[in-house]
Design goal:
Length: about 450
């Protein structure tokens, strides 16, 4: 990031950024880092937190630190080596013995900057810039690749080759190695790993072999029981449980445990443009397109550099939709003044961000919780949609329809949802020149909570 410091700051000095992190949503285990266990329906400022990556699991949260250095009249941020956690520690997922209600630093024997942090329901991974992977938390389904150990409360290095991307579902994990292999391990109770061989894979990861004509895998995301693989040619593959994506699959992928059905979506599914980023809710997928992007498969940070160089982005969603997860409701008959939404849509559809007036909203970053999503546009505005029972969308109760009628499984239920993208109101920042609007630069999502880092 870059920003403009006050005039009395000296070039070449370490500095405290005027940036702020906000948190909101479910907080019953202190996962927001606010020091208490009360849900937040609107964004709340978290004191003294600077982050380069932030994310969350079912009831815990993790972020990495960032260092700011003055460069002339601006300053730049550099990823740090420290990791901070808070929230539930029922399975060791915060990397210490206590249950912190504020973000606290954990012990990491690492000299490399942290590239990413990844959370499953109750386990955590820390990916370093050298491709090394540290793990801690629940290992009840071999999520941490440590046979016969049910929990690990301090970070240990995972027994894996160098990896460049990792994603975690409820109890399974998908990774892409530096040699372009797709690796899956952990629970297979719902076919998450694409094999019927065993409910839990204990003999090392399942290795997928994609057809090279569709490109090399560059990044991945994971839902509760499915995984998404994105190639450098813009092809999207979904493997695992496919019930909300059409059930049977349209291609067969070879793996080390046998052939498995999958869904493949070509760039034609997204208006002819390749996908540059995906995110997965529990049972839905988000895919972001761009017009002019050069992919690099050498290391995932290069992919992010190229992604942010894109000058436009269009968001597509598909999968389960009964809680407004897709952000593009096809409203059917209305009952009692409330809209109804179909249970799922297996086909990608474009999401509208209030641009019915002819303007174009360009999306530059996306995240997904269990049943809610976040997106940032090129102006730095933050948008959210989906399930909002615990305030995870950051939209006040009086600003949305609190009783949305949802047509699911043959019946009607009423849930607090934000059924289409809505802007989140973030408090302005105080600078030496006075107050100015907050610009969102980084977002993160836990299963039922959200984060935004603004400048």
């Amino acid at each position: 990031f870059v920003s403009f410091p006050c005039e009395n700051e000296r070039p070449g000095s370490m500095m405290v950024s005027p940036s702020k992190m906000f948190a909101w949503g479910a907080n019953t285990h202190g996962q927001l880092g606010t020091g208490d266990t009360t849900d937040r329906f609107e964004p709340e400022y978290i004191e003294g937190v600077n982050v380069s990556v932030v994310t969350g699991g079912g009831r815990h949260s993790v972020h990495t630190d960032v260092t700011y250095f003055r460069l002339g009249f601006k300053y730049a941020s550099f990823p740090g080596v420290d990791v901070y956690t808070c929230g539930s520690n029922s399975a060791g997922q915060v990397g210490r013995e206590n249950f912190p209600l504020h973000f606290q630093k954990i012990g990491m024997e690492s000299k490399y900057p942290v590239a990413s942090v990844i959370c499953g329901w109750d386990f955590t991974f820390v990916l370093q810039s050298d491709g090394g992977l540290f793990a801690f938390g629940s290992n009840a389904h071999n999520q941490l690749l440590c046979n016969d150990i049910r929990r690990i409360s301090k970070p240990i290095r995972a027994s894996l080759p160098t990896v460049r991307c990792v994603a975690a579902g409820l109890r399974h994990v998908v990774a892409i190695s530096a040699s372009n292999e797709v690796l899956l391990w952990g629970s297979n109770h719902r076919g998450q790993l694409g094999t019927t061989a065993s409910k839990t894979i204990k003999n090392g990861p399942v290795c997928l072999k994609l057809d090279t004509s569709q490109g090399c895998p560059v990044t991945c995301s994971s839902g509760a029981y499915h995984s998404v693989i994105l190639t450098d040619a813009g092809f999207v593959f979904i493997i695992g449980e496919l019930r909300y994506f059409g059930e049977d699959g349209n291609v067969i992928i070879r793996s080390s445990s046998g052939d498995l059905p999958a869904y493949m979506f070509t760039p034609d599914s997204f208006g002819g443009r390749p996908i540059v980023q995906t995110a997965s809710g529990w049972s839905n997928v988000l895919a972001l397109t761009a017009l002019f992007v050069h992919f690099s498969s050498h290391f995932y940070t290069e992919l992010w550099f190229d992604y942010f160089a894109a000058d436009t982005g269009v968001l597509f969603t598909w999968g389960r939709s009964d809680l407004g997860q897709l952000g593009r409701p096809h409203l059917s008959d209305c009952h009692s003044g409330s809209p109804r939404i179909p249970e799922f849509d297996p086909f990608p559809g474009r999401v509208s961000f209030g641009d019915d007036d002819g303007s174009v909203t360009r999306i530059v970053d996306i995240r997904a919780g269990a049943e809610h999503s976040l997106a940032v546009d090129s102006d730095g505005d933050l948008w959210t949609w989906g399930w909002n029972e615990h305030g995870m969308c950051g939209i006040p109760k009086n600003a949305i329809s609190e009783s949305v009628s949802l047509d699911c499984s043959g019946g009607i239920k009423h849930c607090p949802c934000v059924i289409q993208p809505s802007r989140v109101n973030l408090l302005p920042l105080s600078t030496c020149q006075g107050l100015r609007p907050a610009t969102t630069r980084l977002i993160g999502a836990g299963y039922g909570h959200s984060f935004a880092y603004v400048v």
